């Protein structure tokens, strides 16, 4: 006579084992697409809710925490920069499934007005772009809790930041020449549309890629230690920050551009136009 215990063991052996996650066949492309929540769906909105509303800081900057959502579509990953206008945040775009840079403008009227001007210029640049403007591309924009938010393609560091991280070691002449050629193309494209950037400076010229190579320098820190310098892997650049862009008309402001880079004719009050 077979014991009850033995029967129980045999049943356990013949029972189908549970399938592990890695042992399950992956869903088809159509099934995976259907499974992805999309903006507008109740499940998407519930899963990616925005954080409770907070007061802005004293200067009107948007207050955030890493990992929070900037609307259900965008997840905040980090801060890329900060300026007079506001902050630039690195975000993940859940709908387009790509990393983007979002300029979150301060909730102050003059900066909001400047942001709307910039959006108008960016859309005009994008509309007429034949693929060689070398101007940053706008992806989207929205008004969130009294902050104008402009969504851009994610680029690399500015020329200024690259120099700063590289202990201000100068770029090779050939690379400077290539930067200059691309910048002239951007400026010429804007002038075709009767637009004047007015704020050209290293901070507003971004490398397209963040990748770089490390090369030994001729200078030595000591007899045993070699000094290195960094060079960008790609010379491709793009022009950014069109918030101060002026249209070609006689009623533009008499004082423009950052003080450190201001053209002599502006300082002397002689008037200015495209050449500045």
UniProtKB/TrEMBL annotation:
<dbReference type="InterPro" id="IPR008271">
    <property type="entry name" value="Ser/Thr_kinase_AS"/>
</dbReference>
<keyword id="KW-0418">Kinase</keyword>
<keyword id="KW-0547">Nucleotide-binding</keyword>
<dbReference type="InterPro" id="IPR051175">
    <property type="entry name" value="CLK_kinases"/>
</dbReference>
<dbReference type="GO" id="GO:0005524">
    <property type="term" value="F:ATP binding"/>
</dbReference>
<feature type="region of interest" description="Disordered">
    <location>
        <begin position="18"/>
        <end position="59"/>
    </location>
</feature>
<dbReference type="GO" id="GO:0004674">
    <property type="term" value="F:protein serine/threonine kinase activity"/>
</dbReference>
<protein>
    <recommendedName>
        <fullName>Protein kinase domain-containing protein</fullName>
    </recommendedName>
</protein>
<keyword id="KW-0723">Serine/threonine-protein kinase</keyword>
<dbReference type="InterPro" id="IPR000719">
    <property type="entry name" value="Prot_kinase_dom"/>
</dbReference>
<keyword id="KW-0067">ATP-binding</keyword>
<feature type="domain" description="Protein kinase">
    <location>
        <begin position="74"/>
        <end position="276"/>
    </location>
</feature>
<keyword id="KW-0808">Transferase</keyword>
<dbReference type="InterPro" id="IPR011009">
    <property type="entry name" value="Kinase-like_dom_sf"/>
</dbReference>
<dbReference type="Pfam" id="PF00069">
    <property type="entry name" value="Pkinase"/>
</dbReference>
<feature type="compositionally biased region" description="Basic and acidic residues">
    <location>
        <begin position="43"/>
        <end position="59"/>
    </location>
</feature>
């Amino acid at each position: 006579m077979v014991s009850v215990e033995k029967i129980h063991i045999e049943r356990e052996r013949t029972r189908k084992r549970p399938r592990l996650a890695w042992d399950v066949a992956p869903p088809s492309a159509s099934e995976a697409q259907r499974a992805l929540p999309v903006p507008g769906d109740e499940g998407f909105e519930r899963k990616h809710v925005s954080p409770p509303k907070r007061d802005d800081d004293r200067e009107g900057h948007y207050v955030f925490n890493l990992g929070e959502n900037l609307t259900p579509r965008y997840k905040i990953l980090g801060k890329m920069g900060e300026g007079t206008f506001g902050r630039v945040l690195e975000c993940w775009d859940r709908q387009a499934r790509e990393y983007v840079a979002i300029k979150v403008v301060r909730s102050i009227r003059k900066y909001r007005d400047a942001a709307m001007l910039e959006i108008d210029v960016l859309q005009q640049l994008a509309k007429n772009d034949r693929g060689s403007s070398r101007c940053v591309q706008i992806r989207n924009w929205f008004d969130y809790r009294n902050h104008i938010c402009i969504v851009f393609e994610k680029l690399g560091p500015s020329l200024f930041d690259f120099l700063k991280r590289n202990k201000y070691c100068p770029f090779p002449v050939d690379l400077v020449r290539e930067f200059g050629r691309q910048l002239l193309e951007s400026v010429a494209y804007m002038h075709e549309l009767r637009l004047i950037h007015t704020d050209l400076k290293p901070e507003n010229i971004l490398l397209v890629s963040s990748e770089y190579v490390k090369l030994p320098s001729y200078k030595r820190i000591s007899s045993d230690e070699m000094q290195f310098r960094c060079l960008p892997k790609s010379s491709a650049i793009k022009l950014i920050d069109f918030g101060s862009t002026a249209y070609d008309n006689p009623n533009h402001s008499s004082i423009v551009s950052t003080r450190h880079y201001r053209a002599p004719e502006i300082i002397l009050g002689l008037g200015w136009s495209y050449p500045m």
